[in-house]
Amino acid sequence: MDIPKPQAGKLAQIPADRFTELLLNSTPLIDVRAECEYHDGHIPHSVNLPLLNDAERAEVGTCYKRKGQEAAITLGTELVSGDTKKERMTAWVRFIADNPTAVILCFRGGLRSQTVQKWLAESGLQRPLISGGYKALRRHLLRTTIRVASEKKIIIVAGKTGTGKTHLINNLTRSVDLEGLANHRGSAFGRRVSAQPAQSVFENLLALDLLRQEREGGATLFLEDESRAIGSISLPLELHRAMSVAPIVRVEESLDFRVETILNDYI
Question: Residues in domain Rhodanese (predicted)?
């Protein structure tokens, strides 16, 4: 995507009206929040290269509560200096070398992303940041889910275990594989060996899939019959409500077919 030109004396930012373009283009994102924040929720096609690691963030947070913002900023600058700053700068520069269109974000588009942006600019690398940060991008994605759930004609694909519902969903052009996004094998076989994503990560993945469906056009969206809970993941309430009143297509297959499918897919 094209980088917006900054105003005089300011570095570039990606405004909210460019978020859809950024997301659909899978623009690489440098998420400079701490590891624990990234784990709890992040945007697809982002990489976590923190300004402050978990321990440093906690230390700065404690300082902020006890001594105020100015002291916390001073401490943060001291913690990320010398060899530590060089190591983190090297990581950011290498990522940008491999991903020249990369964009920077922190939680609210505040001091952390502005600091990284400023340091990179001083080294000759001009990269924009996300206006409003992760919080603004996530709000954009959640609104996408609500909008698509209300605008699309949802059709539910139902049937017994082993009838190949998930295969059918994945072969339909206008569909979203909810179990795949939740990394779960349904009520009969449960979670996979690898962990399910955090709730907010699932919601972000789902919204991005719905955003892609919206781009492709068409009035219909096929979804597999699901309860609101898919393992430890909960479907967004607005989407589940729309699913609960949607028409149902039921898949029927022989017992032999179902056994073969279960053996191939689950055992």
Answer: 23-146
Q: Which residue has the tokens 């001009």?
A: 126
Contact by Cβ (8 Å): 248, 158:
yes
Give all domains of the chain, ordered by start, each with its CATH number: 13-131 (3.40.250.10), 139-266 (no CATH)
Helix axes 69-79, 54-67, angle to 10 degrees: 150
Distance in angstroms (rounded) separating the CA atoms of residues 82 and 152? 54
In one letter, which amino acid is 223? L
pLDDT, tens digit, 9 for 90 and up, residues 170-218: 899 899 999 999 998 665 554 556 889 999 999 999 999 999 999 988 8
Give the burial string for 209-240 (b: 16+ CB within 10 Å, else e): bbbebbeeeeeebbbbbbeeebbebebbeebe
Question: Cβ of 195: how many Cβ atoms within 10 Å?
Answer: 10
pLDDT of 231 above 60: yes
Give the active site residues.
106
Element (H, E) at 48: strand 46-48
| Tokens found for residue 191 | 């979670």
